[in-house]
């Protein structure tokens, strides 16, 4: 089913650290501007351009492969012959989003949206926030308790000048607006209904940043301006500053490891915040940038990219970084193939997964810091210079790895247990970003 929708602008505008009610008024967005480069090292450019260095939190979510399901699906398979899964996938394309059944890969809904759009899982197993124009829009995927099975944009949206990172942790979802430094926080499971209470905190200056609320109510957020980003600070539950570290040039991206160790990327290593203290772990190179990270609550090790050329138009690294938050060590692993900012993911038990330009998923043991297997999935590919252009993207839901193949409009599902592609389909449009919900 195809639905024609345009983004609505949120009317909430209270800029303080007090609860407020977000009520959405009807309106029309021109849909023309690029949204914040969630995976980039620069603030979003509303002209639709930008340069790449991402940190999408792949590996969070989704439904596993049905063990009794035959592994012989191909692009010609009719997904309507199979029982629908509770899990759903969401993929962007140039002109909208597709909502898919996570087991059959069949299209359940096609929602048209203008402009370049991005996807942000809310963390409640049902909703996805769509960065579009000047707002975060709420997509109800139609699955989960109380859902009616129909995917649709709801009437809840969040006003945002350059919508950026979205982070879910400890039952709170936190939005960061790069154009204003606005941080907006709400209970992750509170998106059902017409309104919800949110807390708004304003960063000192607008910048391409990120924030996360911790289990004790502390708020960790980046420090920066539109010209430079320098570090991280932590506020207590009353939003008084309790910790700060500005030894993190070019701060970008966030990932959570086991025991609530927060890893923040820098141009010369990473900052780790845990148990009220910051620890700096240096890169082995003077410029060793880690801007994209993928963490897992099952592992003390965080996966990061690793770039060493500050002057490159687009560096295509072949090494990844493994940050041990327990030992406070950083290890580099040579994969033997390049990758992009949409290549990093984690498995359900903390497995490190990297989608290479050689077309294979490289499975890496995070403790041994070595590649233990390779799973061929797509044809070899080249990373485009324009970060907004589609490239193969990886997303993990339970024990199933999903990989897009824009060159053939394909989507593949890989069983992590037997390391084989068990379902493939051809989509009606070229996929770009990919995420999912567990239902």
UniProtKB/TrEMBL annotation:
InterPro entries: AztD-like (IPR047697), Quino_amine_DH_bsu (IPR011044). The keyword Signal applies. Residues 1-24 form the signal peptide. This is Secreted protein. It comes from Phytoactinopolyspora halophila. SUPFAM superfamilies: YVTN repeat-like/Quinoprotein amine dehydrogenase. Keywords: Signal. Residues 29-85 are annotated as: Disordered. Residues 66-85 have a biased composition (Basic and acidic residues).
